[in-house]
Design goal:
Layout lengths: L1 H18 L2 H8 L9 H15 L8 E4 L4 H13 L4 E7 L5 H16 L3 E6 L12 H20 L4 E2 L4 H14 L3 H4 L5 E2 L2 E2 L7 H10 L16 H16 L4 H29 L3 E3 L2 E5 H6 L2 H15 L6 H10 L6 E6 L2 E5 L3 E5 L7
Parallel strand pairs: 1-2, 1-4, 2-3, 4-6
Antiparallel strand pairs: 5-6, 7-8, 8-11, 9-10, 10-11
């Protein structure tokens, strides 16, 4: 089996080398590129990642989400060189940064065109498309992912590749830790969920930028990423560098490894949550869920919190902090009526016999 895999990897590398231009092949064969950034090393990484995530040998078209930043440009280049199916570079222009945003879209179209890659671009005025109570960041993410899903469906794609890297995992884990979201948040960013997969989670941002620099591939910088009024930017630009310089230079690596370990506990919690929902006699009502209050009320407090998190996950309502989960779990005791707002219009209500979870727009009884 190992011998077969070794031969497959050699063939995989030779095919990738053949896709390069003569100038690119000359650079790969010369001494311009250090070994750890060479096509040989990258082919092994991409081959193993593709097999593990299940998309490498699909042969179907694949959508690559491309913002124009360094991570997504490295992702697009890797798929251009290594993926044998068709590729669509999908760019979401959110209408937030004016002319710079439009220039990002033009840049992506130009670079994809040079590489013979089809592009799909969506122009959206995100500030005008926000739902009630939705933040600009959350609205942009919702609309962006909706565009990726639709593009994949229209092209018959096997999935959507996203360019999240190791720093993104560390930042997300630290962000959720400080918010108090519990195990669900500490698990970080999943390697694959649904049609979305993330091949670069093991790579640092610095590594990806060096891959691009050695091959003279440009990228775009988003000025809003330097605005530290946004929590994630503050964590990326201020908090993590301070931790690395003052506590441990390998803090990002350790946080990413911690998030990966926490995934096991999140999966265990989700399995227990599924069993609890079934025991509580869950009934789907339109876009919501009804539970037997007597069963829920009789559960130990810890299991009520697990049940609350699992119902929220299934209905895709905002993740509640540890304190808010505890507050809601205490409300479910007894038979007293209550109404609990979860954010983004989602609501949880209790009467004598039932606990009713409703998403925004699903209606309440």
């Amino acid at each position: 089996m190992k011998a077969k895999t070794s031969e497959e990897l050699k063939l995989f590398y030779r095919r990738a080398l053949a896709r390069l231009s003569p100038e690119e092949r000359e650079r790969e064969r010369g001494r311009d590129i250090p070994y750890e950034f060479s096509l040989s090393v990258l082919s092994s990484f991409f081959f193993e990642t593709g097999i593990r995530q299940g998309w490498l040998s699909s042969g179907n078209p694949l959508v690559v989400a491309v913002s124009g930043g360094s991570d997504s440009m490295a992702l697009l280049w890797l798929f251009r060189v290594f993926y044998e199916g068709g590729i669509v570079a999908a760019h979401f222009e959110h209408g937030i940064r004016g002319s710079e945003s439009m220039e990002d879209a033009l840049f992506v179209k130009d670079m994809a065109g040079r590489w013979g890659i089809e592009t799909a671009v969506r122009h959206e005025d995100v500030p005008r498309s926000l739902e009630k109570g939705e933040s600009l960041e959350a609205g942009a993410r919702r609309l962006r992912y909706l565009f990726f899903e639709r593009t994949a469906e229209e092209r018959g794609a096997c999935g959507v590749a996203l360019g999240h890297n190791r720093e993104d995992v560390a930042e997300t884990a630290l962000f959720h830790l400080l918010r108090g979201t519990g195990v669900r948040g500490l698990a970080g960013i999943p390697e694959r969920r649904g049609i979305f997969f993330r091949p670069l989670l093991a790579c640092s941002r610095a590594f990806l930028r060096r891959v691009l620099r050695y091959r003279d591939i440009p990228w775009r910088e988003d000025r809003t990423n330097q605005d530290n009024r946004h929590t994630r930017n503050f964590i990326r630009n201020k908090l993590l560098p301070s931790i690395e310089s003052g506590v441990n230079v390998r803090a990002v690596e350790h946080l990413a490894a911690f998030a990966e370990e926490m995934r096991y506990y999140r999966e265990e919690e989700e399995r227990r949550g599924s069993a609890l929902i079934e025991a509580a006699g869950a009934v789907r009502v339109n876009d919501g869920l009804d539970l037997n209050r007597a069963v829920v009320s009789a559960l130990p407090l810890r299991e009520r919190i697990i049940l609350i998190r699992e119902t929220g996950r299934r209905l895709e309502i905002p993740v509640l902090s540890r304190e808010r989960c505890l507050e809601l779990a205490l409300l479910t005791e007894g038979r007293r009526r209550f109404e609990f707002q979860c954010g983004k219009g989602a609501c949880i209500m209790g009467d004598r016999d039932r606990i009713k979870l409703r998403k925004a727009g699903s209606g309440a009884e």
